[in-house]
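Q: Could you fold this chain for me?
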Amino acid sequence: MGKVHQSRIINETKNKLAAKISEAANVLLPENSGYIIAEPGEKTTKITQTQLSNSVDVTSAKKHFDLQLDFGPYDIDYSLNGRQLLIGGRKGHVAAMDWITKHLMCEINVMEEVYDVKWLHNENLFSVAQKKWVYMYDNQGVEVHCLKNLNNVLHQEFLPYHFLLSTASEEGFLSWLDVSMGKLITQFNAKMGRLSLMTQNPNNALICLGHTKGVVSMWSPNLREPVAKILCHGNMITSLAVNSNGLYMATSGMDRSIKVWDVRKLKGPLQDYKVRTSPRSMVFSQTGCLAVAINNVVDVYEECCTKTIQHAYLRHNIARTINNLAFCPFEDVLGAGHDGGFSSLLVPGSGEPNFDALERNPFQTKKQRKEAEVKMLLEKIPADMITLESTVDEVDIDTFQTKLTARNSLQTVKPLKINIKVRNKIKKKTLANPSKIKEKILEEKTKEFVRALNARPKDEIDDAKSTVSKRFGVLDRFQNKRNKKK
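A: Sure. Below is the predicted structure, expressed as structure tokens.
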């Protein structure tokens, strides 16, 4: 009990010290997240995007725009630093752009169906799940790889800290591909039917899948069975989302309900909301806002996980059916891909105002991007460490004890000292070299000793180790010659 109490005191002191350090560092983070102040008696859901764009500055107003395209429905994805936008239409249209400056990086038509698009570790590479296989392109639209091991893929997720591209196929296969080496880590059949819903937990890098029986399963590349299962709804799950810190998970089903679950305890639901129809897509922002797509309407809920709310924070009506939603990192912007193209919506308070330039830098230069890529490769986390409980900041005690036991079990008994006396014999014509004869004899004696040692059982070797350790200790080197003779 004393050790437990002592460790608890040490943890409390460390937490207090960390709180003081973070409080002192708040001086360096002066930016605050935005918000909307409504007039008395006015609801924020009545505020339109036109009113928001007229109320903000010119730079922020330009972030609200619409792209009218004819190859939908569209899937969208933002890069890790939030600067680049990738869109992919079901009819084969793929485009990458810097959505802030409206600079088009590339635009291609793959001439077949596109089911999902995903940026990789930076804006130089992106993957496209096409009708048959998964293809990788550079930022100029040039095909780099064709991954024939990944066929009939419906959804993709990229794990930036592990450099893994995870895919879910129509036949029910789960795959993890190491992008840095081009090696397929593992691929197996989940035996859960068609995998139509997929997302990742940013905290422990587990892949979360939603199934038709109302079950959410969590998968790791190290096991061929789900590490956890949660029965969320009594019928098919229509959308799934996990927040940025991996604490809460939101699910929606055909019963027209949205439930919030605690991922750490795998219990719940913490909150249960009723909506007018089943949502098609859900996504969390960096600050915890939940965006829900219901047919052609986008509802944004604020702080819906920690407390029960009565109405939405913002609401926007789009003329076409919404297919996919995505919050832009470090920006108060929500992207919506629909049948008629793409829409960029303003959501004050959804983005993280203070970013770590060493982690994700929206304003990085070409040299900084190269240095960041090298740093990410050096700090790459192995796929073996993807577990239900995050063990990145902990010591693997079992592996350490195994290595220590293996090191102690080695045969470390020193060979006995061999005294050799060679007499100089002078023959008539040749003169023998005593040093060479001594080396040969010593080598033969050593080999005989090793053979005899390997032939002995393990118990005798342990006894020999104990006698050697008793005969000479660590502190015996400081004794003088007289004490050693005694």
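A (continued): The chain has eight helices and 28 strands.
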